Amino acid sequence: MSSRDLLVETMSQLLWERGYADTSPRDVRQRSGVGQGSMYHHFPTKRDLALAALERNVADALPATSDLDGPGDPLARIEAYLTRERDALKGCKVGRMTQDPQVREDPVLLAPVARAFAQTHASWTSVLREAIAAGQLQDGLDPERLARTLMSVIQGGYVLAIAQQDPAPFEQACAGAIDLLHAAAPSTTIPRRP
Amino acid sequence: MSSRDLLVETMSQLLWERGYADTSPRDVRQRSGVGQGSMYHHFPTKRDLALAALERNVADALPATSDLDGPGDPLARIEAYLTRERDALKGCKVGRMTQDPQVREDPVLLAPVARAFAQTHASWTSVLREAIAAGQLQDGLDPERLARTLMSVIQGGYVLAIAQQDPAPFEQACAGAIDLLHAAAPSTTIPRRP
DNA sequence: GTCTATAATGCGATAGAC
DNA sequence: GTCTATCGCATTATAGAC
């Protein structure tokens, strides 16, 4: 593995574990074993390295949405995505970045994060639209809104899990969302004949 | 206002705006105008000051749950809480702390955060139980789970809003949650007589 | 590309006078 | 309680040889 790739890989890990503000170039050097000179040759500033690492983290995280995009029963895809194995105590490597002021205030650093969420929102909207069309969810529900709701359940679930130092709240949040989706199925009772 | 209170107040703001790692004792001094000697007299370390400020932020944030606890129609209280005016781009002053490794890894600093979430969860569970008992939500929904789900919607909504630098995703996430709750009302159609 | 040396600035605190 | 002075170390680089 080239020094360059090693630096990006290491910074990606550290951004996930510690965030931007709390990760120093020295941390990256020590964990990666790459020397000072090499590091500043490939990446003139910490920000440059962080940008590359952030893009890598986004590229890492997005394939998970293939659960949503893939073919098959829409509601089943939604449930598969919501029950997918996740390390709740580590949080989301993309969502995490929104809490780092130096990332959030820097349009260039924030851009990959915004793109990732926009794309995920599109996938969610699409599968929800399908579920409504298939009669699995009540007509009249707004797929774009619901997409925001379900994305939030995941992102917020991480927060609850870390606060309690226990993955259970994350799992309960997702399970509760699935319960709600089931409860929002169109009624199957047949209205009394007029 | 005493120097001590001024320090706590200022640290509270900075923890909300910038987090723990990215806030230095010097930042606190400069914004508060309190001198070095005073500061280290009242708070021997940055961590001591942060703990006091964190407890203040928790005390600030909890009264909002009175929307949930208060008397009246349970579902209306839920909707009131979910549509309450919030500055989505600033995020949650309590939830934010879960993303600071130095807070999350320090049981003493994390404790007030965990307590706040536990208490909020209790309020949510209680109002949801009432809503189910009142026939506003389908019987068989689990109030504890649903409480996690709705708390997550709020916490995650902040993440989406910051990622897009736009409060709309937050509002949509909450609106979508309300839509889902309405869709999860018990069916009012009368089943065909057997 | 990688190395070692150097440096300005900030961080988080301590010391001791008033 | 508040002030000023000082401190050792980390951060975020830069310089220039190899």
TrEMBL record, chains A, B:
Organism the protein comes from: Aeromicrobium ginsengisoli
Ranges for domain HTH tetR-type: 1-61
Annotated Gene3D superfamilies: Tetracycline Repressor, domain 2 (1.10.357.10)
Source species, domain of life: Bacteria
Database matches in SUPFAM superfamilies: Homeodomain-like, Tetracyclin repressor-like, C-terminal domain
DNA-binding interval(s): 24-43
Protein keywords: DNA-binding, Transcription, Transcription regulation
InterPro entries for the chain: Homeodomain-like_sf (IPR009057), HTH_TetR (IPR001647), Tet_transcr_reg_TetR-rel_C_sf (IPR036271), TetR_C (IPR011075)
One GO MF term attached to the UniProt entry: DNA binding
Protein name per its UniProtKB record: TetR/AcrR family transcriptional regulator
Record-linked PANTHER family: HTH-TYPE TRANSCRIPTIONAL REGULATOR LMRA, TRANSCRIPTIONAL REGULATORY PROTEIN
Keyword match Transcription regulation: yes
Listed PROSITE patterns: HTH_TETR_2
